Amino acid sequence: MIHGFGNTGRIFGPLCRVLAAQGHRCFAPTLYPRDGRSGIPDLAAKLETFIGQTRPAGAPFALVGFSMGALVARHYLQAMGGARRAKAFFSIAGPYRGTLNAYLYPGIGTRQMRPGSAFLDRMRDGAAALHGLPVFTYRTPFDLMILPSTDARIPSAKNLALWCPLHSLLPYDPRLGEHLAGELAKLEPTALSPPVPARDPVI
């Protein structure tokens, strides 16, 4: 589980408890620098190191990324070959077309999160690397960090809308935990690519 800008792994505490109750082992590291000042690829490299240290070769795992952490996870999956290892990707409010809030803070990572950045363009262009991997996105129509909130979707994913009042509260929403746990259960013992719905289902 990869936290967002300025967060720590502790933001996933409630979600980890939901998944642990279903028999899943959760890892929620804090990746430094937490503000992404060294860039998204830098954090993705640290994620890759963490996975290598905690998940033996061939051991199944899924990735959950929140906000900036969704960009970190997606870069690992697409640009670093992670899609060949992971069994699923759950993206929570990922700013895939950028966020205007990124103009308010200095650093490489925030420049990469600005609308129209070369980094985001490369990420969209490399989306074919996710084909065959079950991918789910979650967004809230009330999101003020990602405008419009539909920018958190990935075209090839199963995209879901969750009526949560704030961007920052999405990882804590119990409905998200229940849905994620249910999808993980469906992926065992084999993972199947979900169909792409015409509209975002509401959960």
How does this structure look, described?
- The protein has helices at 13-21, 40-54, 68-79, 108-112, 118-125, 174-186, and strands at residues 62-66, 88-92, 135-139, 158-161.
- A 4-stranded parallel β-sheet has the order 1-2-3-4, with helices on both faces.
- The model is unreliable at 190-198 (pLDDT under 50).
- The two termini are 21 Å apart.
- With 203 residues, the protein is of the alpha/beta class.
- It is globular, with a radius of gyration of 15 Å.
- Helix 1 crosses helix 6 (174-186) and helix 2 packs across helix 3 (68-79).
- The protein is built from 6 helices and 4 strands.
**SSE series:** HHEHEHHEEH
Helix segment tally: 6
The end-to-end span amounts to 21 Å
Q: Give me the side-by-side strand order of the main sheet.
A: 1-2-3-4
The SS-based structural class is alpha/beta
Helix proportion range: 25-40%
Unreliable sequence segments: 190-198
Number-wise, the strands total 4
What is the molecular shape? globular
Radius of gyration: 15 Å
